[in-house]
Specification:
With 572 residues, this protein is of the alpha/beta class. It has 13 helices and 30 strands. The chain folds into two domains: 249 residues, Carbon-nitrogen hydrolase (Nitrilase/N-carbamoyl-D-aminoacid amidohydrolase, 4-Layer Sandwich); 268 residues, Carbon-nitrogen hydrolase (Nitrilase/N-carbamoyl-D-aminoacid amidohydrolase, 4-Layer Sandwich).
Length: 572
């Protein structure tokens, strides 16, 4: 079943609510006349956004249901459609205000979402949402709603994914970057669902909003979008597409229990030092590197390539270098090719680490007790520091490998490093758990050919320097999003194999909205790149560095995440 949908882009005006409502009704009527059956309007579209306090917004709040929703319900009844409306809500029982989204159908309000993860402005007047993250069954699909900052957190959209949502309706007042934003794209792709994005544009109290309203496909492709100005973005969603992609249906919830932990509620410098058991390594400024090459089935040839790149990285001052998946052993060809830990080949890797005084991370096919694993090993001058067996296997891996069962972190002079491999990065839970364990750096050997990066044609929105407005061939990259959402550095070492894996190795910084981007990217060639990693701290008892402070990790709302650790989430 194909359903026509519409994202409404609109610039509301503060203190002129009636005019805003009339303009939104007119835009919705135009979209409905074009056949749209699901229409999505911006966050706080009826009122404007930048309110200073409860007193200022008080004349513009309404109940849900209430007078405002009834006006949109009349339109929904007239056109037999469903609307998502952003508005300031008052709870009649408590008097609390919320930044809310109402799902409205021909018979009235179907459901409400109250913004759970506030941006800096909401605490001036609104309480955190208390309705969780429901998915609503309608004739036009299973609908989830998120509001702006909610989508920064992997858990909110994942709750929609595990409840088999067809579409996430994300309403926002997004700012400070080109849109469609990488976070929007990532949440659609990683949860294998459509995302209808309704963002505002324009300037309000000195804040420049980004526009870019769009319809995003489950593969991360932008189906339709607009840049600036009021308007309607028409698109289609297909219902009944069958079981979700492996990145959703092959989750391993039994490995995600730590998602319920709030490690950053307390000062992390104190928390990880509790009982003097696992203090974070002292912060410092370091150079880190990734090497990109095509692993062969000749271990000695691979070692020679590793030695060459590691030596070049050391000459550039790097203390850590990460190599691709299977970089030591070559891709799996049979159990006879598998290496042992320890073994002669890994010992040679350790000897290289000793001679260069570096930490090396390499991938290999590992044999242990008659079984094979897809493994990443970290070695340094002290020997084998840790070995991680891939938890989320690819379809090719499953023909020969046993999945791992333990997350692995190691402490090195640069900081705390967590290990991932390839397809692990497609599961947002993986990076999150390592971040919750205090990792500064995620090292991820890979051999992946998708998802391909998403380009951006450029924006006419007048962002202030240094926010970029021009075209960007590499606007959306999954490793970049994973780094930013977890406030970690991420060293992504992807093998370069034309027709099989993309290359595009890189090192990505811990702040998504820091421009110019703090990252190094290697395209379709063999070689290496380096980046400065800073985990240092001013002389204070509390972390002053984002990678140690982890603002986004600290702002999680774990009370709503319980379905993420259940083996199966039954439909509502």
């Amino acid at each position: 079943m194909t359903v026509k949908v519409a994202a409404i882009q609109f610039e509301p005006t503060m203190f002129r609510q009636e005019e805003n409502i009339q303009a939104l009704l007119a835009l919705c009527e135009q979209a409905a006349e074009q056949g749209a059956k699901l229409l999505v309007m911006p966050e706080m579209g009826v009122s404007g956004y930048c309110w200073q306090n409860r007193e200022e917004i008080a004349p513009y709040v309404d109940t849900i249901p209430g007078n405002t929703t009834r006006r949109f319900a009349a339109l929904a009844a007239r056109y037999d459609c469903y609307l998502v409306l952003g508005m300031p809500e008052v709870d009649v029982e408590t008097g609390l205000y919320y930044n809310s989204a109402a799902l409205i159908g021909p018979s009235g309000v179907v459901g409400t979402h109250r913004k759970t993860h506030p941006y800096i402005s909401e605490p001036k007047w609104a309480a955190n949402g208390d309705k969780g993250h429901a998915v609503f069954e309608t004739p036009v699909g299973r609908i989830a709603m998120l509001i702006c900052m909610d989508i920064h957190f992997i858990e909110t959209a994942r709750l929609a994914g595990v409840q088999n949502a067809d579409v996430i309706c994300h309403i926002s007042n997004w700012l400070a970057e080109r849109t469609p934003a990488p976070y929007w794209i990532n949440r659609a792709w990683e949860n294998d669902c459509y995302l209808i994005e309704s963002n505002r544009w324009g300037l309000e109290r000195g804040v420049q909003f980004s526009g870019g309203s769009c319809v995003i496909n489950p593969d991360g492709g932008i189906q339709a979008s607009t840049d600036s100005g009021d308007g309607i973005v028409m698109g289609e969603i297909i219902l009944g597409r069958g079981e979700k992609a492996p990145r959703v249906c092959q989750r391993r919830p039994e490995k995600y229990l730590e998602l319920m932990n709030d490690s950053y509620t307390w000062n992390p410098l104190d928390f990880f030092n509790l009982y003097q058991r696992s203090p974070l390594p002292a912060g410092k400024v370091s150079e880190i590197a990734v090497g990109q090459f095509t692993p062969q089935h000749d271990v000695q040839q691979n070692l020679a390539h590793i030695r060459h790149l590691a030596t070049a990285a050391q000459e550039k001052g790097a203390e850590v270098i990460v190599f691709p998946e299977f970089s030591l052993s070559g891709p799996y060809q049979g159990a006879a090719q598998a290496l042992h830990l320890p073994g002669a080949e890994v010992t040679a890797l350790v000897q290289l680490a000793v001679s260069l005084k570096m930490t090396l991370v390499a991938g290999l096919v590992e044999a242990d007790a008659g079984q094979c694993f897809n493994t990443a090993v970290a070695v340094g001058p002290a020997g084998i520091l840790g070995a991680y067996r891939k938890i989320h296997l690819s379809e090719a891996d499953k023909t020969w490998a046993i999945p791992g069962d333990k997350w692995v972190t190691v402490d090195i002079p640069c900081g705390r490093m967590g290990l991932l491999i390839g397809e692990d990065i497609t599961f947002p839970e993986a990076g999150r758990i390592l971040a919750l364990r205090g990792c500064d750096l995620l090292a991820c050997p890979a051999a992946m050919g998708e998802p391909v990066p998403g380009a951006h044609p450029g924006s006419e929105i007048p962002h202030n320097y240094p926010i970029p407005c021009g075209a960007d061939k590499y606007h959306w990259l999954v490793p970049r999003v994973r780094a930013g959402e977890n406030n970690c550095y991420l060293a992504w070492a992807n093998s370069y194999q034309p027709g099989k894996s993309l290359g595009l190795s890189g090192i990505f910084g811990p702040d998504t909205f820091a421009f110019p981007r703090h990252e190094s990217l290697l395209l379709d060639e063999q070689g290496l790149v380096t980046l400065t990693m800073d985990t240092s701290n001013l002389d204070t008892p509390y972390p002053t560095n984002v990678v140690r402070r982890k603002d986004l990790v600290a702002m999680r709302q774990t009370n709503g995440y319980l379905p993420l650790i259940k083996a199966r989430q039954e439909p509502l």
